[in-house]
Amino acid sequence: MSAKKAAEARSQGLSAGDCVDCGACVAVCPIGIDIRRGPSFACINCGLCVDACDGVMAKLDRPRGLIDYESWHNIERGRISEPRVSRLVRPKTIGLALACLALTGIIAVSFATKTTAVLSVQHDRDPLAVRLSDGAVRNAYTVKLLNKSSAPQSFKLGVSDVGAALAIVGHAPAALIEVEPDGSETLRVTLTMSEPVDADVTFQAVDPNGQVVLTAHDRFVNR
């Protein structure tokens, strides 16, 4: 009822609610919910009705919170005129705090261990190996160098753990491969073994100072 009618009802000892039927809460709701009829599953929790109602209550010198975010337990307590219970520390808040701490730790570790480049290798599948006329066996690979930094980087490609000759299509074996900032370079690489055996292969990207900065593992097959 209106504020005037509510005041008249109270003066006669009758019960009167605090809502003044201004309709502000319904007018601002983007879904068109009438919150005065109770909670609705269609509510998107935008809080516009809360702000509108608090503004009207402030003009009438009444306490805010006629429409508010509240637990169902406190809603039921309000129905029987019992004071609301507010607990800052409860299982939900503890769980959320721990989840936030864990997420912060994961992000911190990710930044601390972040690499500025990536080396990946993919073995050709068809064919896996090619036997040459002299009896040697050749395997082909697609090698990709990814530069995640904002400055150009140069690498020299090499292999270890296997006695095979490395060849890079379009480049000398010992040439420096330059990768643009936030860019990548895809290379066709072959390994040729004169006395072929099945073996693990470690591809290495070496910086201009001779330090191995990236590694990737694959397999040399003798088939």
Describe this structure in words.
By secondary structure, the chain is of the alpha+beta class. The protein has helices at 3-11, 24-28, 48-59, 72-79, 91-112, and strands at 117-123, 130-131, 137-147, 153-160, 165-168, 176-179, 184-193, 199-206, 212-220. It folds into 2 domains: 3-86, no CATH class; 117-220, Sandwich (Immunoglobulin-like), CATH 2.60.40. It contains 5 helices and 9 strands. A hairpin with a 5-residue loop joins strand 8 (199-206) and strand 9 (212-220). It is rod-shaped, with a radius of gyration of 36 Å. It starts with a helix and ends with a strand.
What is the typical, i.e. mean, pLDDT?
A: 88
Sheet with the most strands, sense and barrel status: 5 strands, antiparallel
Tally of separate helices: 5
According to DSSP, the number of beta strands is 9
Quick take:
With 223 residues, the chain is α+β, with helices and mostly antiparallel strands.
Task: Write a concise keyword list for the protein shown above.
single chain; 223 residues; alpha+beta; Immunoglobulin-like; 2 domains; four-stranded antiparallel beta sheet; rod-shaped
